[in-house]
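EI: anyone free to look at a 89-residue chain?
SC: sure, send it
EI:
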Amino acid sequence: MATMHDQAYLKLCAELASCLSISLASARKKVEIAAAKKGINDLSSRKNIAEGLLKAAHSSIQDTENTPASELDKLLTALAEDENFMVED
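SC: here you go
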């Protein structure tokens, strides 16, 4: 599919990417996949889908335990049995 250069659409995708801590290309792909599932091809409907995904992302961020940053913090914390693990001798 050809790249769409509508500034409003790109801004929505950029806000979605920022909210989800993903790349702009990933956010655009997420919108394209949602549009493909609904069989939508026009730009105005894609903007509506992007707005819906952005609202959903903002509502999920309101819960502080589900933010991408907190998920990364949980993954990076060492378990008690792994604290003294050495990779090299």
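EI: The mean pLDDT is 82.
SC: 👍
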